[in-house]
Amino acid sequence: MAEKDVSTVKPHQTLNDWLPITKSRSAKWWYSAFHNITAMVGAGVLGLPYAMSQLGWGPGAAVLVLSWIITLYTLWQMVEMHEMVPGKRFDRYHELGQHAFGEKLGLWVIVPQQLMVEVGVNIVYMITGGKSLKKFHDTVCHDCKDIKTTYFIMIFASVHFVLSHLSSFNSITGVSIAAAVMSLSYSTIGWVASLDKGVQPDVQYTPRASTFTGEIFGFFSALGDIAFAFAGHNVVLEIQATIPSTPEKPSKKPMWKGVVIAYIVVALCYFPVAFIGYWVFGNKVEDNVLISLEKPRWLVAVANMFVVVHVIGSYQVYAMPVFDMIEAFLVLKMKFNPSLILRFIARTLYVALTMFLAMSFPFFGGLLSFFGGFAFAPTTYYLPCVIWLVICKPKKFSLSWWTNW
Question: Alpha-carbon Rg of the chain, whole angstroms?
Fold first, then answer.
């Protein structure tokens, strides 16, 4: 996974030209916007009203607004640090970590956390895609024979057995554009349909749990759900790596332009869904607000298909950095030759693994929401700040005692 300076090692130049993150550097600023929207506005947006019901109006609104502000700032830090060292680009999150913490420690700090997020998101999206397909089927054909969610997960996975063989980040741009449009569409359906339904007669805004232990569990689960909704930082450097850069036109300018557009869309999706969904249904809201909307059937069915299309794109965006790590590891450490066969086998096995885990642990989303505050928060909320301080204030925040470990 770790690469030496590509400017001095010719074999690594060839490898960088083959790996999916650095194979193509021809992206435009709007590529950044669509990729970031796809990465950010995942199916987790539909769970924000549920998170609000676990936190309450005051804490819920505060956590959501502060998360939007803090993550926008840390995302700006990462965009700036991509080319902070003259003549070098930190194309991957772990490369930035290695520069800050050292060759070995940087890998141990970044890679496990980044993989936990990206693989975890892919498993959750396998489950979400399967459940949304089942919801669509049950809605349009409510008299049909019941089919297990497991089979719908397999159907959803079959798409990725094909799409996962697109060679580079830029090659999934079309999928990402479709996913970004769908995310805005089903988010709008979620809050508009809730608003049209109106505040329920028996609505209550008291805590969901009836016990103190349940409230604590719910509190951490809600933080995890919100952290899950802001997990896009784990792919931001990899997205920026696809944008061309020159001293006159550094990649940070078009990248930041795309990020700003993406965060405006994030605000338009997150806040109305979270606040209106909670306002309408209170502490009875489901963990997916579309489930609370039973009618009109056709609208619920369309919204669920929008979710399916979106999580197809999101899965690919989060899987691409994992493919990059796997393929780099197989070539650099396992000494395999870069080839289409190697790529085909590695990516097929990864999709199969995430499908198997999704089928085996359909409650994985619940586990991830509880631990999400611990698993997702570091790489999104405060690790970019730590790296920023280490790189920009080396005298005050020296970690030489760590790097010598």
Answer: 21
Tokens 């000494």 label which residue? 335
Q: What is the pLDDT of residues 152-209, one digit of tens each?
A: 999 999 999 999 999 888 899 899 999 999 988 988 988 888 888 888 888 888 878 7
Q: Which two tokens stand for residue 384?
A: 């970019």
Residues 144-149: contacts with CB under 8 Å, at least 24 apart: 149/362
pTM recorded for the entire structure? 0.87
Give the other-Cβ count within 10 Å of 103's Cβ.
12
d(C-alpha 356, C-alpha 127), whole Å: 10
CA distance 51 to 48: 5
Residue tagged 């060292």 (tokens): 85
Do the Cβ atoms of 250 and 244 come closer than 8 Å? no
List all residues 6 or more positions away from 233 whose beta carbon is below 8 Å from its beta carbon.
Answer: 71, 74, 75, 78, 379, 380, 384
At which residue do the structure tokens 């502490």 appear? 283
Whether 379 and 74 have beta carbons less than 8 Å apart is answered as: no
Q: What is the pLDDT of residues 381-391, one digit of tens each?
A: 889 999 998 88
Q: 237 and 93 in contact (C-beta within 8 Å)?
A: yes
Q: Are 156 and 308 in contact (CB under 8 A)?
A: yes
